[in-house]
Amino acid sequence: MALDDYKKKRDFTKSPEPAGDHDKALRARKGKPLYFCVQKHLASHLHYDFRLEHNGVLLSWAVPKGPSLDPSVKRLAMHVEDHPIEYGSFEGVIPEGYGAGIVMLWDKGIWTPQVEDIDKALAKGDLKFTLDGFKLKGSWVLVRTRGYGGSRGDGSSKSWLLIKHRDDWAGALDITEFAPRSVKSDFDFAEILADDQPDVWSSHKPAAGGEAGDMLRDIIQQAAALKAARATTRKPGARAKSPAKKKATTDPKSPAKPKAASRAKTAAPRAARKPAATTGARRRS
Ligand code: MN
Question: Which run of H or of E encompasses 266?
Answer without folding.
Answer: helix 256-284
